[in-house]
Amino acid sequence: MNRLPILTVALLTVTIQFVGAQVTESQEVEPLLGNTENGEQLFTEYTCAGCHGFTGETGLGTRLNPSRMRQARFIQYLRNPTDPERMPPYQEPEVSDQNLADIYAFLDSLPSQSPAIEDIPLLQAILGELRH
């Protein structure tokens, strides 16, 4: 039996799936317009401050302020956290994308209390050592 047609079909199927996945991943999604006030209420309601601190940067959980990811990635992470035992997943319909966009807007509105890199003497000393 000639395997060439079967291998060709299999290769085409894998190629089409791969190319389709690449197109989907590369498309930019328009961010939702978040409501800062609602985001603050939801941040409190979902007890986010218990792990992330009231400013999103002082708790034992992942630092959320300043933001290190775009809104779409933030929502994706909250839907599927890397460690669900430490960070509960927030799934639809209990928590909508709009609610997560509101939380993102709230966090994005917070000023960071962290000093600038230039204002941390120990860090500057370490960086100076690495440069030499």
**Basic shape:** extended
Query: What portion of residues is helical?
Result: 40-55%
Tell me the total number of β-strands. 0
* H/E element sequence: HHHHHH
Main sheet: strands, sense, barrel:
none
The N- to C-terminal Cα distance equals: 67 Å
**Strand coverage percent:** under 5%
Top-tier CATH class of the domain at 36-111: Mainly Alpha
Mean pLDDT: 83
Short key terms for the protein model shown above:
132 residues, mainly alpha, Cytochrome Bc1 Complex, Chain D, domain 2, extended
Provide the fold topology:
Layout (H helix, E strand, L loop, with lengths): L3 H23 L9 H10 L3 H4 L18 H9 L17 H13 L11 H11 L1
Structure explained in plain terms:
The chain has 132 residues and is mostly helical. It has a domain of 76 residues: Cytochrome c-like domain (Cytochrome Bc1 Complex, Chain D, domain 2). Helices cover 53% and strands 0% of the residues. It contains six helices and no strands. Helix 4 packs across helix 5. The longest helix has 23 residues.
Short description:
The protein is mostly helical and 132 residues long. The chain is built from 6 helices and no strands.
